[in-house]
């Protein structure tokens, strides 16, 4: 009996020691204990090997062609002379930055004036990548203007911009996004920059977007608006009432163009802008988020971020402790199918997300450029130039002559994006698709439950819950089909590498819409600071009387 009691005692003692050991490990390491998939590096220009040039269809490969073309046409006369700007940002005591669009062969110098006492100074400019051109044969390129200041310069709400040959200047608003020099505190840990929605009809995915991010810790949203339906506006207005200042709407219009030139490939500057200035949007939002949000995701509505803990902000906080110099965390972006189930949905109460129906494709079955593309969470004040999938340059880390780093977290089950393609075609002979049957779908079911609980509480006892938002399904399907067609056709031409026309341009798609949807459009937000015109003047110089004249 005594020996049996001793065995029980020693068993309990061992159990207590093991429990203590496990708890100690968790306290000091947290729930994310596998770090072998994390690779930290400094961004450097990427150059593909020659053997990959035909295999890859990565957008960045178009830069090679563009460089050859610009060398061939260096002396050619530009058809598009406009220089378009929106807002500026004071990023430090010594610098104001702004983003502008101009044709890639424009060589006009910009000038800036902080105050009349300082005078005019040339604007320094840079490009977002090594070639200084945007994507897919679209010649309207994104530029970054920089104005240097004396450190003691007081903040001014406006900056004056002009061009070297202009006799007018433009007043551009300046947003102060400086960090506190010693003890900055971010109002938000996790924020989301959403690409401009254009000709948008699927209002149900907006609920999925907000609820999925909120369920995983996001508290700040920058929502860019180009054109959308009245149903979409009802949903956005509801979330604005619910989230208040944590949701910002940013109008993002087309570039200004004469009505007689609108839709012309040779005269409308929007015909040369890639997807409503996507590159400019990303950088505008990242500048806007500086000092307000610690981690920011640049994303689209068909991207679903997933964290194994369903807490992305905590995951990033832990990762930033391990990588204190990180400017961004780069994670997998996995192509997936989310079946449409639109027809029964008449009002917001009918939406149930059905994430459990999402099917993840096998990596080998995904087109190569989508297979290798990734998504990122940025530290806004640490990144300089990037696009949706790549980093070109980060800020310098403190007083060191070295950039902040990029942390790659590939094949990491704790954080990734699913790219939910929702466009469906009823093909007679569809390509065979292989799905990853080993994907952990239970996590999506858990996320779906949390999202439904949140939505139910949010719409409880509101008129919005049962507001009829019909008809919409037929218009949505046709508009989505038209926009998908516009990826390959526009201006009466097939868009490919042979005819070398701008693909997915802002003005190319509008003329292809066939559903007759009356879209709400953003008001004009771009200013052409290079605009020239003839005007009457109603003042003349007075002649001075002189005895010697």
TrEMBL record:
It comes from the Eukaryota. One of its GO terms (molecular function) is glycosyltransferase activity. Coiled coil: none annotated. One of its GO terms (cellular component) is membrane. It is found in: Membrane. InterPro entries: Glyco_transf_92 (IPR008166). It holds the Pfam family Glyco_transf_92. Keywords: Glycosyltransferase, Membrane, Transferase, Transmembrane, Transmembrane helix. It is a single-pass membrane protein. It is an enzyme of class 2 (transferase). Its EC number is 2.4.1.-. The chain crosses the membrane at residues 7-28. Belongs to the glycosyltransferase 92 family. PANTHER family: GLYCOSYLTRANSFERASE FAMILY 92 PROTEIN. This is Glycosyltransferase family 92 protein. It comes from Caenorhabditis briggsae.
